[in-house]
Amino acid sequence: MDIKVTVREGKGDCSVVDLSGEIDVYTSPKLKDAIGNLIDRGVYNLVINLEKVRYIDSTGLGVLIGGLKRVREHGGSVNLVCTNPQIKKIFDITGLVMIFGIFDSEDAAMKALV
Amino acid sequence: MNQSAPKAVAVDTVELRIPAKAEFVSIARLAISAVASRLQFSIEEIEDVKLAVSEALVNAIPRGGERADVICESLPDGLRIRVRNFGGPVQPETLDVSRVDESAAGSLGVFLIRALMDEVSYESHENGTDLVMFKRLPG
């Protein structure tokens, strides 16, 4: 099991992080590095696309929360793209829907940032 | 008068022993998924069980010990899963979502287990702690 992380430029000053695979205790450091590198380069508005993510656990959630916390210190934000009901359910029951912007499409997630 | 003894409940048990390393948690997920699929759980319920077992292992692994055991018992009314760590006690934790950050992932994990499973308890044993979870079959 692995995770694939791809970073590309989005509209305005935001970057899009495409994820596919499973985000768990073993794979989440790779995501943490990718988000950390973007923030270190001064990118504070992120769209993280979870459309191809089959699974996420608390360590993956922790990485997303850590990223959000860091970009907020610079006035930025993190919006998520997610339509997988099982993944959305995890954000719902943990209350993280109140912390992240969660959108059905990348366009909508990006528009809410720029 | 001849009284028959109560019938013993048939329990199918599957035991998995994995090294206490992060890279083996996905193997436990695959195994538990296969066990839960044999029962009448929905796909969503199987996903719940997978996540709960994974979270229990995420909680157990940093406590040390060389291995973690996952013991699954298929019961007539559901699935009981015991995640056994050999590295010391696991304390039940609570979550304050308003103060959540990356360091709170462990608390989030325990919160998820409690939310996704029907019963959760802790049992100490000589070398560590068992986290015992039960998922009831629908109907």
What does this structure look like?
- Helix content of chain A is 39%, strand content 32%.
- By secondary structure, chain A is an alpha/beta fold.
- Chain A has a single domain (3-111), classed as Transcription Regulator spoIIAA (2-Layer Sandwich), CATH 3.30.750.24.
- A 5-stranded mixed sheet of chain A has the order 1-2-3-4-5, with helices on both faces.
- In chain A, strand 3 (45-56), helix 2 (58-72) and strand 4 form a beta-alpha-beta unit.
- In chain A, helix 1 runs parallel beside helix 2.
- Chain A is globular.
- Chain A starts with a strand and ends with a helix.
- The mean pLDDT of chain A is 95.
- With 139 residues, chain B is α+β, with helices and mostly antiparallel strands.
- Chain B has one domain (12-136): Heat Shock Protein 90.
- Chain B is 32% helix and 29% strand.
- Chain B is built from 3 helices and 5 strands; from the N terminus they run βααββαββ.
- Chain B has helices spanning 25-38, 43-60, 105-116, and strands spanning 12-19, 67-75, 78-85, 119-125, 128-136.
- Chain B has a 5-stranded antiparallel sheet with strand order 1-2-3-5-4, covered by helices on one side.
- In chain B, helix 1 packs antiparallel against helix 2 (43-60) and helix 2 runs antiparallel to helix 3.
